[in-house]
Amino acid sequence: MKNIPVLFENDFCLVINKPSGLPVQGGEGVKNSLDSILSETFSPRPLLVHRLDRDTSGILLVAKNKEAAREFSALFAGSRPVVKQYLGLCSGKPEPPKGVINVDMDVRGKEKKSETFYTTCSTTTEAELFCSLLELELGTGRMHQIRRHLAHIGHPLLGDDKYGDFSLNKKYKKLFGLKTLLLHASRLVIPRQSGFLPEGLDISAPLPDYFSRFIGG
Fold first, then answer.
1. Computed from CA positions of residues 25, 30, 33, 39, in that sequence, does the dihedral angle turn out positive or negative?
2. Is 53 a catalytic residue?
3. Any idea what the Cα angle at residue 70 is, between residues 192 and 46, rounded to 5°?
């Protein structure tokens, strides 16, 4: 697929490195989506089993048939240890540098338990830039969970146009060329299972180049 790297493929699934700005599914006002690209590239069309926000880059797995889609969907939704790790750049420096954010989130009018683990990898305090690179792992999978949790503790992701610091984003756009949400699905670990992934899967995707201007040496 043009401009969409394939990280892994077998007879049952395809793992890609989705670019920022590409919606996973079509909808009103969406001219191009990952789903439509898959439909044009493969026959039959691979099936989505989980999602990433439009502006989140990184690892996404799709299934090649209905049976595999059911199995993978159950894995992502169930209690078996599927690990989804992210890297994100947030404003400031969270304290403590490692912890868990347990803040219930409204999901369709109901408060749902939500859990995000974070570890500070590095902090940049050069010139007018003050931000931290975080490794993040989902304990639950609510919509926009990482973005909402980091905004809640006062350290929103850079480039977040929904929950973030709008004046800071505008400043960083002018000074450092900030153009998109700095959140990347960096690693996916799926345990061994019979049939579709007999050896399991542990795969990583490198950070996009545009992260580098915000990460100090």
1. positive
2. yes
3. 95
Nearest to 57 by CA among 88, 92, 91: 88
Task: Look at residues 77, 78, 81, 148 and name the one whose alpha carbon lies nearest to residue 116.
Answer: 148
Give the rounded distance of the alpha carbon of 210 from its chain centre. Answer: 16
Question: What pLDDT does 216 receive?
Answer: 66
- At residue 82's C-alpha, the angle toward residues 87 and 207, to 5°, is 20
Q: How far apart are CA 118 and CA 136, in angstroms?
A: 4
> What are the tokens at 105?
């989130």
pLDDT of residue 195: 80
* Residue from 53, 55, 160, 165 carrying the catalytic annotation: 53
Question: Residue 48: helix, strand or coil by DSSP?
Answer: strand
The answer to pTM > 0.85 is: yes
In the block, tokens 């026959």 appear at 43
Give the per-residue pLDDT at 111: 87
Residue 105, number of CB atoms within 10 A of its CB: 17
Q: Report yes or no: 69 and 166 within 8 Å, Cβ to Cβ.
A: no
pLDDT at position 91 = 97
Which regions in the chain score pLDDT beneath 50?
Answer: none
- pLDDT at residue number 98: 98
